[in-house]
Hints:
Elements (H helix, E strand, L loop, with lengths): L1 H98 L12
Amino acid sequence: MEIASLIIAALGFTASVYFSNRTAKKSDMDDIIARTEANTKISTKLDGIATDVRETRGTVDKLRDDLSKHDSRITAVEESTKSAHKRIDELVKLHNRYCGRTDPYREEDKL
């Protein structure tokens, strides 16, 4: 009887160890699958972010090029404006000299 009790206890112990390992392996496998899915989602999102960063970098580079072009164009416009103002001042002086007015913009001289 004692031997039968020991054999039954040993079988019960062996069965509990076996099934607990089997459950633990299944649980570990489920955890691995869940982590793999999460890592895949994260990796996919990071790839999307990296693509967006590359596109943004390209856009910023293009804007920098446009700004450098604007700088030279603004300088040209400023020079042209300065030249136009000089010509306008010369025309005003000629007008004043031939019309006999010293200040053509005074109210009393206007009709």
